[in-house]
Design goal:
single chain; mainly alpha; two-stranded parallel ribbon; 21 helices; 1% strand; globular
């Protein structure tokens, strides 16, 4: 007779959801279908640009009017959704919902494969019900696509396999796609190479295969970098990468007022920092909203590239830079409500029955049509998701703080999943914090990874219930 595992006992049965994929997949799809129908749409400033760029695809010489900061994969997928389903709200809503459902099932697959079926089911439902992720599915932004690719990379790095080269090819292709979905992924490429090396080492390959493992790691590290290099260089040559970094540098006020870049605007810079300060210190989100843009306009012509700017900031003001990075991390983990983009956008989705369109900005005014928006079909659903916000925010903050502990435990236990997922989550969060981006929505793509890592950590600590 087969021995009954502790996870199947009566103590665990009422604590966690049914573990069978026949329950999890329909449940995830039902949750997504319900809120996509019930809640309204939001088209932000960025949404208008994505629509404009998607419309450029197929037109003569689209790259002459393209913003180099926007990598094209999301716009290609958006264009494909419009061609298949028509240029309407349901086309992009189903695209966003598809990314979310696929992400939840990747989390479920990874944890189930690791031997924790009930924890896997719970993690998938947490990802499907997370109010922040639900809200972002109703906005035409790249956060859901980025979250999918980040989770896909983590899934590939934690998956066992007896054929290493097909896995390396899949990981390399996913990394290239991720880089062309969001430029931040380019900074994760060295981490992916390291994790591929660790994955092959922990898989206990036959003796003499260390050199081959290094070759796999080099392919994963070099091929995506070479593929992404032309686009990144274009963004650098046009100054868009430097402008993006300058936003964080000014917003977090990490430059000393006497820095040469601030010549002529020293008084305005100091005054903006003084207005934002609370008890003599800048808050987590830096300067007040919109105080940074006049300063950026004055400083931007003097910047000579993003890497030059970053190294100059670190060299000239190392303590202020370190303080700015720590403030940015605090902004991700525990943002104040009045400065939180996530809080603002959740409020718009959950509290307003009508669709929301941010003021149109030329040349994007013609890209938005009434068919691309839809009001709430069941406004009461917003109140239900609103009630879930606090516990999920606390869970995300707890997961963020637990990542180093989970990584240490994974290294000690030689557990590939518990090494890859926390390290990839740490790398993604750090990539945004090191460039001082104080918008807490930068954390959104990592939320599935954070919730999955937390569920897996708890399953490893209390295996009888998982």
């Amino acid at each position: 007779m087969q021995k009954k595992s502790p996870a199947q006992g009566p103590r665990a049965a009422w604590l966690l959801p049914p573990a069978h994929p026949g329950f999890v997949l329909p449940a995830v799809c039902a949750i997504a279908s319900f809120h996509l129908w019930a809640l309204p749409t939001v088209l932000t400033f960025d949404s208008q640009q994505y629509l404009y760029l998607a419309d450029l695809l197929g037109s003569p010489a689209p790259w002459t009017r393209w913003d180099p900061l926007r990598t094209p994969l999301f716009m290609i997928l958006l264009k494909g959704a419009f061609l298949l389903l028509g240029r309407n709200a349901w086309a992009w809503l189903l695209l966003q919902g598809g990314f979310a459902a696929a992400t939840a099932m990747l989390v479920h697959s990874a944890l189930r494969r690791a031997g924790h079926p009930r924890a896997a089911a719970l993690a998938a439902l947490l990802v499907a019900l997370c109010p922040t992720l639900v809200a972002y599915q109703h906005m035409l932004l790249t956060e859901m696509a980025s979250g999918f690719f980040l989770t896909l990379l983590a899934w590939l790095l934690a998956a066992p396999g007896s054929r290493p080269w097909p896995r390396t090819a899949a990981l390399t292709a996913a990394a290239i796609a991720a880089c062309y979905c969001r430029p931040t992924f380019a900074t994760l490429i060295p981490v992916l190479g390291l994790l591929r090396l660790i994955q092959l080492h922990l898989a206990r390959q036959p003796a003499g295969s260390l050199r081959l493992a290094w070759l796999h790691a080099l392919v994963v590290a070099l091929a995506p970098a070479l593929a992404a290099w032309p686009w990144l260089q274009w963004s650098e040559r046009t100054g868009r990468s430097a402008q993006q970094l300058l936003y964080g540098v000014i917003r977090q006020a990490v430059l000393d007022a006497r820095h040469p870049l601030l010549h002529g605007v020293e008084a305005r810079y100091s005054a903006a920092a003084a207005r934002a300060a609370v008890h003599g210190r800048l808050p987590a989100c830096g300067l007040r909203d919109n105080d940074e843009y006049p300063l950026m306009g004055a400083v931007s012509p003097r910047v000579r590239g993003s890497l030059v700017l970053l190294l100059d900031v670190i060299r000239s003001s190392p303590a202020r830079y370190a303080d700015g990075v720590l403030r940015t991390l605090r902004c991700y983990a525990l943002p104040p409500e009045d400065r939180s983009e996530n809080h603002l956008l959740r409020t718009i989705v959950f509290d307003r029955p009508s669709s929301t369109l941010f003021p149109a900005i030329p040349p994007y005014t013609g890209a938005v049509t009434p068919a691309l928006s839809r009001p709430a079909a069941l406004p009461a659903a917003g109140r239900a998701f609103r009630a879930l916000e606090l516990p999920f925010d606390l869970a995300a903050a707890a997961a963020l703080f637990c990542l180093p502990f989970a990584l240490a435990l994974g290294i000690l236990a030689r557990d590939t999943l518990l090494v890859a997922w926390p390290l990839l989550g740490i790398a993604f969060v750090a990539a945004n914090a090191l460039v001082l981006n104080p918008l807490d929505r930068m954390l959104v793509p990592a939320l599935p990874l954070l919730l999955g890592s937390l569920a897996f950590l708890l399953a490893r600590l209390w295996p009888r219930r998982a």
